[in-house]
Amino acid sequence: MTTKLISLKQIEFFTSLSEILPLVFCIIFHKKLNTNGLKVFFIYTLFKAVFILACISSIYLIKSKSLYIIILRFHLMFEYLIVSFFLSLLIRSKVVRYLILFSSIPFLIYCGLDFYWTDNETFHNKPTLVELLFFIIVIIYFLFEKMRFSFQIPVYQTINFWVAVGLFVYFSGIFFYILLSESYFSKNIRFRDELLLIYTSVTILKNLILAFAVTVKEPKAESEDYEFNIPLEINLDSFESYTPTNNLN
Amino acid sequence: MYLLQADTAGISRLMFIGTLGMLTLAIGIIIFVIFHQRKVIRYQMQMKRLESEKQQILLNASIRFQEEERQRIAADLHDDAGPLLATARLYLNDNLVNQEKAQQLQSIYSAKQIIDDAILLIRNISHSLMPPTLKNFGLESATTDLFQKINGSGALNASARFHDYRERLRVEQELLIFRIIQELINNIIKHSNAGFIHLTQNATENKMYLRIHHDGKGIVQSEFDKLNQMSQGLGLKNIESRMKVLKGKIFFEIDPSETYYKITIEVPKEGRR
């Protein structure tokens, strides 16, 4: 049992370290991060690395559970802000883009109220569930847009697509973990280990996908043909004689 | 409620099934998007390949047209101008000085007439290559002239209205547009059995538009594209290749009232240098 617990702790530790992997790849392939979306993604990886360092410090160095919960709460708010900004940059539809951006305001208010109402000793999953559901829907919409409008470059040859895939797999994979974590996380050690196993596998998978995303070589898109649009003021159906002063009638 | 009543094993199963379900759903959606897009891209590549094949046909048609034009000019020169000049040379042979004065005058007069005919013939050939009205007075005059000639034949009612052509295009552009108009008009006269043909022109700051209306049996864009794919129909291919040179567009349609057909041409303006 002790051996198993140690190995799980090791897995947890390595999972935490794997959060740094996308940042390392972002630094190596920094020349590829030339769009606003990818710059935001770089900030996300940086934020994740800082978060993991903060978590490790709170658990192993300071050994304060309440500090760990507070870090989780702040992490949730900042993650929402960064990911929603990143996804808004990928979405084509203006309405949806603004909807994603402005959704941060009610979400932050909700997180703030949750922070105020609940204690810092146990993990409260509701704000995280809201975040996960929202991002799963947004990423599905993003994929739908890719399916409808993106025909020049195969989607799997773009960094943005793989970043979205990584986030999608992660948010979907940890959904049930978060859903069940509040009630059962601390009550049953065996169950907790199983939860942790799912969480670590999904997190490592996400980090591998995000790291791989940065290595994708994007082909250049060809410019599209211009459309045949006759201006409305141009009259081509009138047979009236030409008069220089009234040349458009 | 189930969560409250279930034991740890049940919850654990629920969590595993739930997570697996969510992951399967996510991966399923991703795979579907990738495969759907691949299918669309493959279709587009096929369309591009067809387009390049079409370009090849157009290029071949254009080369063939040039060769035919050269052969026609060569035939005109060889069959008409050659014998005329040879006959003139016969009249003006070395023996002319030894002939009587009356006969000399007769020979010179005949030779002069033959040379006049040859000049006229060469002028006609030259005019067919580059109409002088077009060169000297521009597209508006050449087109109006063409329509007046058609109207004068009495076979059908033809008119051309230029609304905004104060600034002439480059001569090469004007010639290409004029050839397109000629080809379209020829096709309408030959195949459509139209009662009228009207041409209107208008322009914006950087584009010129021409529209031909006729009440005969015309074609719509899909038919034009289809005819262009076929090996026959040199005229339409010439129109297409000329449009490509002009970097313009052509659109064939039927009026919503279905009483007449419209052919609209859009050409980017290039002023005279």
Descriptive report:
The complex is a heterodimer of chains A (249) and B (273). Helices cover 71% and strands 0% of the residues of chain A. With 249 residues, chain A is mostly helical. In chain A, helix 2 (21-28) packs antiparallel against helix 3 and helix 4 runs parallel beside helix 7. The longest helix of chain A is centred in the C-terminal third of the chain and has 27 residues, at 189-215. Chain A starts with a helix and ends in a 34-residue tail after the last helix. Chain B has helices spanning 2-5, 8-91, 101-129, 132-137, 139-152, 171-192, 221-229, 234-246, and strands spanning 157-162, 196-203, 207-214, 249-254, 261-268. The longest helix of chain B has 84 residues, at 8-91. Chain B is elongated. Chains A and B meet through helix 7, helix 8, helix 9 and helix 10 of A and helix 2, strand 1, strand 2 and strand 3 of B.
| Residues in β-strands, percent of chain A | under 5%
Q: Note the run of SSEs of chain A as H and E.
A: HHHHHHHHHH
Count of individual helical segments of chain B = 8
Low-confidence stretches of chain A: 241-249
- Give the number of DSSP strands of chain A: 0
Helix percentage range of chain B: 55-70%
Spatial extent as radius of gyration of chain A:
24 Å
Tally of helical segments of chain A: 10
Judged by helices, strands and strand pairing, the structural class of chain A is mainly alpha
Nearest-angstrom radius of gyration of chain B? 33 Å
Distance between the termini of chain B: 84 Å
Task: For the largest sheet of chain B, list the strands in their spatial order.
Answer: 1-2-3-5-4
Largest sheet of chain B: 5 strands, mixed
Largest sheet of chain A: none
By secondary-structure content and strand pairing, the structural class of chain B works out as alpha+beta
Low-confidence stretches of chain B: none
The residue fraction in helices of chain A comes out at: over 70%
SSE sequence of chain B, one letter per element: HHHHHEHEEHHEE
